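Example record used in the benchmark description.
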Amino acid sequence: MAEFSIEHSEGMHWVKVVLQDDAIRAERGALNRYVGDIRMETPLPSPRDLWVSLFSTESPLRPRYRGTGEVYLDPSLGGFHIMEMNEDEGWIVENGAYWASDDEIKISVRRERLMTAFWAGEGLLWYHSRLKGKGKVVLVAHGPVQEIQLNDETLVVDGRAVIARTEGIRFSVRRPTKSLISYWLSGQRAAYVYRGTGRLLLSAIPYWRYAMNAQKAAEVKRLPSAAN
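Model output (structure tokens):
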């Protein structure tokens, strides 16, 4: 299998992949450069994946890099997390969190329940990437990643800090309080609830450079346009 590593410099992180007559898949547009005897190809998605892409932010196009050499993916002010998958477990990945994986990892989609999609503000159709197989997967993370084991327990999170979960974890989105008055007074729009037995990857604290850049972008967006 391919050798994945995370490199960093000047506050930026990026993924380096060493291939020895092997192959990987990566997110569309993620390539920075490669060197060596490597071929790049983009498999055509199935008709179902194309249909799902109309209702999802996840791209069905994930190029494959095959051969011998080194592949470098785009840098980020955020970070990345490398996890090892086993054949007997499947993972559900948050939108935008998939970055790259061994070619042995099978990538499909899973639709969340209608009410979960509604409370999350995603309309009625909300799809996440589903990963299955044995190999390594690289996930996008805005900060350090903590693995949490639930044993028939419940984890409640403010927002989308969980970037991946095993299929044994049930996911829902609901009001943070039962009372409507408390809901409006709390300042919390929705609670992301994870129940069951399995593992989760939590990235709740962003790297400070990423947080400052996101805050600056939000401030620029709020500024009135010059035309006004």
